[in-house]
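User: Predict structure, ligand flavin-adenine dinucleotide.
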Amino acid sequence: MASVPQPDLAPQAFIQALASVVGAQYVLTAKDDVAPYYTDWRHVFAGTGIAVVRPGSTEEVAKVVALCATEGIAIVPQAGNTGLVGGSIPTGMRKEIVLSVSRLNRIRSVDPLNDTMTVEAGCVLQTLQEAADAAGRLFPLSLAAEGSCQIGGNLSTNAGGVGVLRYGNTRDLVLGLEVVLPDGRIWNGLKALRKDNTGYDLKHLFIGAEGTMGIITAAVLKLFPKPSSSTTAWIAVESPQKAVELLAALRGLMGDRLTAFELISRVCLDAVIHCKPSIPDPLPGRHPWYILAELTDGGKQEDLAARAEAAFIECTERGTLLDVALAQSEGQAKALWSIRETIPEAQFTNVKHDVSVPISSIPRMIEEGLADLQKAFPGLVGYIFGHIGDGNLHYNIGMADEEATRALMDKRKAVNEIVYAVVAKLGGSISAEHGVGQQKREAIKLRKSPVEMELMQRVKDALDPHGLMNPGKVL
Ligand code: FAD
Ligand code: MLT
Ligand code: ZN
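Assistant: Predicted complex:
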């Protein structure tokens, strides 16, 4: 890393210089004003900075970044601050500002014939889904935080969510980017092209970089045909093995119409019902595992419904599923999805993991992981759910009561080690969709090859030689 420029300006003069770029009301320093920016959604990470700066345009972002580059001040980019690995929170290892992109919230254009929209980084994801819908199109990125996460954060974490099975991760939904580089220059890569082989595809350096390479200010996103029919099913299965067999069977019978396939353990359903007692259990009887599946298509609702029903009858006859409840209305479908979306808040306190393994290894991940954990921590409870259509499990570990869970959280490293050992044995990843942030920075060093780590560091140094972009994250 090249030596960091030394500050010329006294702290107050630096704040005034920031204010002269963005306006004094958008440089926050008062304790109550900065508090929401300095801690994360789960209150696991907390930090402080010189100020929170809220530019209103790409040009203002560029001027703020250039000023920080001259003064050797590091920048923590922040969007909706719903990240789960501490990526958007200052670490205190350098003098830092938080740069919030939330005022960059314009939809610059929607082009239904090209199936694209060009949007700024601070647009809330749900607003983008609604804008696509209003244009008769679908923007398929969907996650429980969609009412508050912003597309700049989604791009920077390469967010996954519940539509990956059909539409891919955020990375797959992008055609172009606009980025402010660590020296303050603007790279305008806002191409709306599906084919462009003119050298390295630079946008992929910034997607999933968690703010360590530059600041994404805008993007060209892909739109898709809006499905005209959908079927939502709550399905009981005997085991994770049956769940992956059901996934294969439904993909065979329904093809790409299967858009979501979420695994939910009975333990998670019980936690949801405990958290929100008004939520009914969708099926009679208790079953150990459930799947929330969504099928979508063009064409008539009755055609998809008939096809889905035939598929579920066939899977019942084959013994792949135990029972199924089909939503009979949009309201019922929403109610089933609200069970899934309530899981994160229903089991807020636990040792979180976000792992992926090949889909065929999901049963081993669950069974062998829990067996190894039980040996070390008798009585522990696995709050296991996730996007198993993508091989992604949220493998959250707690104890039967909150006090014991808090005690377990003090031993989180030991819990992590056991889970990560099974992940490694199965050729998996310790961060499927949430990223590395501060939380997994040390852990990835031990699990990625030296060649891979060196390449990552060289790319980082080439783009950010002074290490001013989000220090203490990822690398
Ligand atoms: P932030 O938290 O603000 O930032 C995330 C990272 O991106 C940080 O490292 C930050 O520095 C960087 N960053 C932010 N904006 C920029 C920018 N403009 N330029 C450069 N870097 C930037 N995640 C999933 O993948 N799938 C899920 O299903 C899912 N479900 C969730 C459910 C709940 C209830 C919650 C609370 C979180 C969930 N998440 C999920 C995690 C989180 O919502 C995602 O990681 C999301 O993409 C973060 O977006 P954000 O706008 O909140 O970003
Ligand atoms: C989810 O799928 O709900 C999320 O990724 C959030 C979580 O893991 O808690
Ligand atoms: Zn998830």
